[in-house]
């Protein structure tokens, strides 16, 4: 028997965290993320339907609708087009849903349905320009290969989302075929995935197969039923669409319930926002009574990406501590202490709170 | 590019769930457990200290203390001794701690710090008999190779626990060197781990290196400070030791927050207890107002092991449902609706509750 160590094969290992098993919905264990770009195998995975079947011998991406020149391209053709690389953080609109009271329907994500990666692909505008889109087009519809049934209406649906036909927004987007310098993993949407910087993750349609210019608003269920901030069930008249990410932050160390001795520690975490830049992260160790600025500690500080933060905490006495974090962005957005509840539990950017415990020496006898 | 599918290499995968990263504390994603014996790589992992270094060239198990013939054995010698195989479920005493209000110190486990496996090794009684234990011995102390500092007192400690010197209890125990017919994985305590059927997991000392008969009660900190039901901090005079598992049960399907359409479903879960046998599992779909018996659905129904349960649920109308489960055992033990809070958050066997949602057809227009 050789010497024993943690490098032994077949040992249990930490992995992605199932929020739901069918279809697969896996949250990232953020406490294990030590690099600014999340390794592909630790990036969160959110599916609406079972994984699709994709035959690369016949696969193509069609771009058409209200335009002068509908086009279609094979994968190899896309690779030969102009390419762009962007670091983009995105977060599932349902991240932090498990902290809502009462519970809202949907996967009960903790803090880990968020990630930052380097995406490489074709600029969306390059492809749209080829098609010569008609005047009067209002939206661009993106169709994924994934399909299935919904719990709330009969029929079979592909996952489809639209974006408004706004030049600045579309100019930011790309059709990614690489993730962190590797071919885009299948579970993240290979062969090609839309990336919409600054928006919640539902915009980033995976397994893209069609792009359609439309003169009318798209009303598919993932646009007109899901991904709306609903105050009451069926109050769709008042509903506001989920679009850009709200400013948000989390504590990644210590873990919830950590037991520490008096001493000096570096609290760590992440902060991100939609369109702006993170300008300030503040930490409280007394349940939000007093706040101190944290250090923004990322190797790179760019629009559309998250930032690490660090805060040096000296504990001088035993007690129960409530650690909290909040972030602000360059557009003046701040996080609320308690999120505004909504029926489908989207966009919960309430401050993250982590209890920590510093015991005294036990007086056993 | 070949056809794309979920079998692609390097894809993100579900794994054990980190409750704490250092030392490694990993919970089982119970929703992914489909076999009565949990595969080794999915069995939960609870560490008090960093993983130890074990050199098998010099490793031996010493058995001594208050006895006539202290002995020591190499690994190969243990393998040649009489062997016994037992299926044993055990649960971390801190399982379900995250459901306590207010939070209790320690890893915030959900429902997954529990597992069932087939353990093979040397009967503990066989080894104790070899040593001819003295009259007057009160306890047997088990020493693990794992060691480190504690947050609440100075010094370096090995993980050590004792058992009362009671013949029937010790006769159930084994020193396991196999888990599910494979050599015991290092992370589960190789070369040898104590298994105490019916007790919470803290009794199952890993990386065992010494067994010591003692004429006085053991007062190491994992016996006399931790693993006590404490009603108030430092009220150690009134503290009750954590020993046998309480009756407990969980829902493993549906996941929390699941969105379903009207129809018929099979709810699934697990139930277990300490000394007795699970005799009844009941399910409520209306937040505990009405209860119906579930079917005990395990391939084997044995003392010291968990049982699968199933419950067929027909949903006829949309709504918000609160699914709950409770179990009873042959000793008359039942689960409480709300657990009795204790300082260190042990033994929480409160009923597991899972919200589920059945939407109506949305009236979008």
From TrEMBL, chains A, B:
Gene Ontology biological process terms, A to Z: sulfur compound metabolic process
Database matches in SUPFAM superfamilies: E set domains, Oxidoreductase molybdopterin-binding domain
Domain Oxidoreductase molybdopterin-binding stretches: 48-220
GO molecular function terms attached to this record: heme binding; molybdenum ion binding; molybdopterin cofactor binding; sulfite oxidase activity
This protein's UniProt keywords: Metal-binding, Molybdenum, Oxidoreductase
Domain annotation Moybdenum cofactor oxidoreductase dimerisation: ranges: 242-354
Cofactor(s) this protein requires: Mo-molybdopterin
Protein name per Swiss-Prot or TrEMBL: Sulfite oxidase-like oxidoreductase
